[in-house]
């Protein structure tokens, strides 16, 4: 399975929902707290054009946020991307 990197803020309910889905898939997660690493999060915001959390990458591919990853899961595309 590909490594998943997720940029979060610990208090964010959408981050928790996305984390729960990804953890249920048994993927290896690299969790980056945007509050603890603001410089890194600034670079990611510039790269993706998105200013919110979570920001989820499967391998090097930016797949979006919480709603996006759940949409991928509902269509079966998430499992395919994780392989």
UniProtKB/TrEMBL annotation:
One of its GO terms (biological process) is cellular response to oxidative stress. Has a glutathione-disulfide oxidoreductase activity in the presence of NADPH and glutathione reductase. Reduces low molecular weight disulfides and proteins. The keyword Electron transport applies. Transmembrane segments: none annotated. Pfam families: Glutaredoxin. GO terms for cellular component: cytoplasm. Residues 4-63 form the Glutaredoxin domain. GO terms for molecular function: glutathione disulfide oxidoreductase activity. This is Glutaredoxin. Keywords: Cytoplasm, Disulfide bond, Electron transport, Redox-active center, Transport. PROSITE patterns: GLUTAREDOXIN_1 (PS00195), GLUTAREDOXIN_2 (PS51354). SUPFAM superfamilies: Thioredoxin-like.
